[in-house]
Amino acid sequence: MKALDIAYKRIVTRELPRPIRSNKEYELYLERIERLMGKIHRSAAESQFLELLSILVERYEEERYPIQAPEPRVALRELMSSNAVPQSEIARLLGSSGVTSEILSGKRELSKSQIRKLSQRFGVSPELFL
User: Fold this and answer.
1) Which of 3, 9, 36, 44 is most deeply packed, by most CB within 10 A?
2) Which pLDDT score, from 0 to 100, does residue 4 have?
3) What's the average model confidence in pLDDT over 64-89?
4) What does pTM read for this prediction?
5) Contact, 44 vs 6, CB < 8 A?
6) What is the number of helices (H) and of strands (E) in the chain?
7) Cα separation of 77 and 107, whole Å?
8) pLDDT given at position 53
9) pLDDT, tens digit (0-9, with 9 covering 90-100), for 44-76
10) What is the torsion angle, in degrees rounded to the nearest 10, for the CA atoms of residue 7, residue 11, residue 16 and residue 20?
11) Rounded Cα gap, residues 34 and 61, in angstroms
């Protein structure tokens, strides 16, 4: 067994990580993560353990606090705003200012080709617009 494996086994045996079932456990895991993140010289075993705790916390958060995907038009508006992209640029990209207005107002849905163009323009997954 490698030294890293032995050190990691010691940490796991001492800490006994398991799936988070309550908000109290969640808070304890966050404290453990914070403590490990604050260490200037973290060992490889501690880094591995930190990764495990992060996975457990992420799983709990996804189950407890799910994030709903925004409507495509809301996502588009947010991308336009955060990237300072005017509606006129989107109209040129999509081929029509009328179509762009209808998409942004929710009167029209995005086509597959429009989704492809927008995802390439903003460097995001096409799934954001579905």
Assistant:
1) 36
2) 79
3) 93
4) 0.59
5) no
6) 7, 0
7) 14
8) 97
9) 999 999 999 999 999 999 999 998 888 999 999
10) -110
11) 16
The neighbour count for residue 29, using CB atoms within 10 Å, is 19
- 49-69 CB burial, b ≥16 within 10 A, e <16: bbeebeebbeebeeeeeeeee
Given the structure tokens 């404290």, which residue do they identify?
Answer: 31
Give how far Cα 18 sits from Cα of 43, 78, 84, Å: 21, 38, 44
Are the CB atoms for 4 and 44 separated by under 8 Å? yes
Two structure tokens written together for 34: 């914070």
Residues 6+ apart with CB under 8 A from 88: 97
Reduced to 3 states (helix: H, G, I; strand: E, B; else coil), residue 106 is coil
Place of tokens 């080709």: 113
| Cα 31 from Cα 81, distance rounded (Å) | 36
3-state DSSP helix/strand/coil percent for the chain, to nearest 5? Answer: 70, 0, 30
Tokens of 79: 């991308």
Beta-carbon neighbour count of residue 127 at 10 Å?
A: 9
Placement of tokens 């323009």 in the chain: 121
Residue 103 near residue 110, CB atoms below 8 Å: yes
Residue holding tokens 């973290």? 42
